[in-house]
Amino acid sequence: MATRRRQFIFFALGGAAVACPLAARAQQTTMPVIGFLGAQSSGALARRLLGFQRGLKEEGYVEGDNVAIEYRWADSQLDRLPALAAELVRRRVSVIAATGGNAAAQAAKAATTTIPIVFDVNEDPVRLGLVSSLARPAGNLTGINFFSGEVAAKRLELLHELVPKATRVAVLINPFDVTSAETTLKDLEPAARSLGLQLLVFHATTSRDIDAAFAAIESGTQPDVLFVGSDGFLTGRRVQIVNAAMHQSIPAAFAAREFAEVGGLMSYGSDIADAYRQVGIYTGRILKGSKPADLPVMQASKFELIINAQTARTLGLTVPQSLLATADELIE
After folding, report:
1. Contact criterion met (CB below 8 Å) for 280 and 59
2. What is the C-alpha separation between 223 and 200, in angstroms, rounded?
């Protein structure tokens, strides 16, 4: 009798042991999957990723707990984005978070008309052709506009305030993103005229282009300051750009705080980590059943001025009290 009882317990436990993995696998298959399309690399976006995950958590989603995330990184090679977006579509993800600038959003849009897409872009998404209007996006896309292009003139003014004797400004932009490059120059030109500044424009779509631009700057143009456009590729190459600028002792202004964190003189632009948090919030709402067409495109509301005080001292610059008073952060 005892033997039969032990056999019964063994088979019962064995059945439970088989059932548990099956139940776990069933739970995994029903877990929603987010496709995260990044124009840069995971290392370049560490702080922004935390913002995205924070936004998801505000909507009740935690990676590995009740949602899975498939990451695809272009490593600043923007021509890879269409293939990476197509991979996520074949994976049949529940929603795509297209991050890192205009190119990622446009690649995702070209890849699918059915999977919901949440983007972050630095230009007017209507002008980019991503949505029909900000209030009523229509289609399968919505997202965040973080205004990096539109605040270019203000960034130039702050750079001039920090280096008031400057008259010649080297402008480094990525022509691959045509709309962003055009908007940057459109905003900069009248601002430069009002400040009495001359713009010298350089293009870079590869790491070699960046080296060539700085070689040209060193050999002939001799600008007083450097203005770097807002672009995912350029942000991904921030260490190269900052090192080159410091090698030539050129004060430089950037759109993203990541430049200042690796030694760049100053940055002014949207708080992009907060913009990524908003992308996470919208992604979570779509997982709950909201449609992109019913979620208005959000406008970035937080802007930040970051000054690297150590770099300023290295360049022999005295930061005006007016900038010290308005800076959101001084890096020592």
Report:
1. yes
2. 8
- The two domains 27-147+271-303 and 152-270+304-331 share their CATH topology (first three levels equal): yes
The whole-number pLDDT of residue 100 equals 86
CB 77 within 8 A of CB 97: no
pLDDT for 149 = 52
| Distance of alpha carbon 266 from alpha carbon 260, whole angstroms | 6
What architecture is the 27-147+271-303 domain classified under in CATH? 3-Layer(aba) Sandwich (3.40)
In DSSP terms, 329 is beta-bridged to 306
What's residue 107's pLDDT? 97
pTM: 0.79
Asked if 184 contacts 152 with a C-beta cutoff of 8 angstroms, the reply is yes
User: Tokens representing 205?
Assistant: 């779509």
pLDDT at residue number 1: 45
How far is residue 102's CA from residue 120's CA, in Å, rounded to a whole number?
7
The predicted pLDDT at position 41 comes to 82
Could you state, in order of their start, the residue ranges of all structural domains in the chain? Answer: 27-147+271-303, 152-270+304-331
- Asked whether 203 and 213 are in contact (CB, 8 A), the reply is yes
- Judged by DSSP in three states, 100 sits in coil
Greatest extent of the chain over all pairs of C-alpha atoms, in Å: 100
Residues in the chain predicted with pLDDT less than 70, given as ranges, are 1-29, 44, 147-150
